[in-house]
Amino acid sequence: MFHLLSVLIFFLLVNTCNSSNTFIALLDPLLKPSPFLSHELWYSSIVSSSSSSSIIHVYNAPIHGFSATLTPDQVKSIRKLPGILSLFPDRVLHLHTTRSPSFLGLELETPNPFILNTSQSNSIIGVIDTGIWPEHPSFSDHNLGPIPAHWKGQCENGFRFNHTNCNRKIIGARFFSGGYEAWFGKSGAPIIEFRSPRDSDGHGTHVASIAAGSPVTGSGFFGFAVGLARGVAPRARIAVYKVCWASGCLLSDICKAFESAISDGVDIISLSLGSSRLPFYLDLLSIVSYRAFSHGIFVAVSAGNEGPELASVANEPPWVTTVGAGTIDRDFPATIHLKNNVSIHGKSITLMQDDKLIRKYYYPVHSIGKFNSSSKFNFSGQLVEGKIVFCQAEGHVARLSLGAMLKRARAIAMIVSHGNVDPNGIVSEPHVIPTISIGGLEAKKIEKYILSNKNPRAKVCSQGTISMHAKPAPIVASFSSRGPNSLVPGILKPDIIAPGVNILGAWTDAMGPSGLALDYRRSSFNIMSGTSMACPHVSGAAALIKSNHPDWGPNLIKSALMTTSTNRKHYYDRHKQISGSLMHISDESTGNAATPFDIGAGHMLPIKAMDPGLIFDLGDQDYVSFLCGLNYTKEQLQIVTGKKSHCSNEQDTWQLNYPAIAVEAERVRHGPVVITRKVKNVNKGSRIYKAKLVGPKGYYKIDVKPKRLKFSGVSERLSFRVVVEKENGMQKGKNLWFGALIWREKGGKHNVKCPIVIFCGKEYLNGLKN
């Protein structure tokens, strides 16, 4: 049903063309007619029937084909030509953005051989985003050695950017605007800011510094989060691929960036944007990411910011690592002092700009009530001038823009409620007006005070930054998109979570931290939130693993990150002066324990991932069998994999050798379900692992066979089976069961965790839609 709906949406996109539109043609390179000396000449002949048509991009790898502006008649005729595998309408995609390295255990002073390994500088992270601000100290190449020998890329010239802006940190930079210009050129939308790899938005600079920024002392954001800023892999190299502009990121440009990244020799691709929920053979982002995987490249993607709705996760393919967002143990506390001696606690990263003024006096408080994306306000000077304005946000709204409107109306400050969520997870935003963010429960107190007083007054102040054990962390962010995987329920998504709330990172000098035109502030760093920020944390961790294990492919790295992750959060009791990690990671939106639909395998632990003990390995043929299990035709298989394949033996999707198990309960009701997995020992010497099952009792009977795995040496592979049966007397109503299988090394340090999820797949997903 989901695939049928997706196909209908896909063809609706195609058939809404009133005039020429951009399309991406996928072709079989082996079917090039012999008269043509090159594929490019062949492609040109295909679109030559219209003088208004022109080729935008030619793709030679990982996909073969072209993008061009085509009329509806051309689309119909091209579809019938030999060699045409598929024709995709171009689409606009958007970025997933709304003290992390130390929180991950990657302190610069730690004498850990994995962190100090000089080979770390051999890893190359390709950042596909909005470009980079190359002069920023986070991209200094101090103490870095020669550029890795496997690098084949270049540094493109453009507006305010040339080859001298690259160094031994930023080893390459390219920009792709052909698709964007073709799409928006006719609409009058903003076209190009810097027609070069230079970043005028800030997002690309921010995520690049999170992944691989060099250490910068004395960093911070207007007095907040002051200290040492550095990326997860500070010695890794950065390759920049600018594809996102003022109005979005065109799929045709992203495909060209993937082609360049693969041919340039990157080891990691970091992509903080999302695909639509289309079958993989209709989704070019799924296709090009598969081709990157086939070339040995680890692809990290963001899960999206549509949480806490279930089945909202983006980027569902199993060959990418999909990353959700959690909090870190740093906070920016602030207090609202009401005139009735009641104090309200929230957080802020803007109060210190005018702290002396608003801390000293009580100002009138004016409420504008609730607002959402459709609300319209016309603030007169008398209404809000000289006042603290209280507003209650609903849903995904532009709080930064509201703050700008209040600033223009000369309000003193803004108190904004983020809705009924746990205050511990509220994001701090770089407003242009002094702003304090509070949760729904605190908002009710202020609302009650305003209604019961004719002249409500308040003053606000900041407590600055509290780091290290400021609160239990991580907590999965309310905005982080959730599973289950609506395309393939047998594949758990997201895969893991990483820091994505209130993250400090480098910033462009071309834009104020709020991203608003009237924001004239300039800061070398900015604090941002979103799964966009979580994704580069995993990209950096993957670079560390790749540097220490250069022969590991993308699925080994992914397995190591997932099986060593944690579902516990750290806490610190200031009164008892004790700390620990006994509590489960919680869900900000509910306060309950987070499930694998929220956090996947758990919160990543990069140091442990360097030495995982056992890994789940996957190759091209495994994915062919997986796609066969989705009933793909041989033509659809070729579209995804780029190779001619056939389905010799179909298998259930949950039989993919994935480091997580997700089973639909409907299948269990009809009899035992047997899931097979194979693990590889990556340590020297003989090793014995014993199985331990954790999870709630009753409902399902789960067994592991064998219960011991005995490895005689490194690289040996052993299989095991997980058998799932319903308990006697189990009724239909148990929709969800969450647990895990843990392989514990006898007499050793390794614990290899594999989450297990049992849920009523079709019934559950249909219930979410209705």
Q: How would you write the strand order of the largest sheet?
A: 7-10-6-13-14-15-26
Rg over CA atoms, rounded to whole Å, is 26 Å
Averaged pLDDT? 87
CATH class value of the largest domain: Alpha Beta
Sheet with most strands: 7 strands, parallel
N-end to C-end Cα span? 13 Å
Number of helices: 21
CATH architecture of the largest domain: 3-Layer(aba) Sandwich
GO cellular component, one term: extracellular region
Domain Peptidase S8/S53: 122-569
Keywords: Glycoprotein, Hydrolase, Protease, Serine protease, Signal
Signal peptide: 1-19
Q: Tags for this entry?
A:
disordered N terminus, 4 domains, signal, Peptidase_S8/S53_dom_sf, 7-stranded mixed β-sheet, globular, 28% strand, Glucose Oxidase, domain 1, 7-stranded parallel β-sheet, Alpha-Beta Plaits, 770 residues, hydrolase, alpha/beta, Rossmann fold
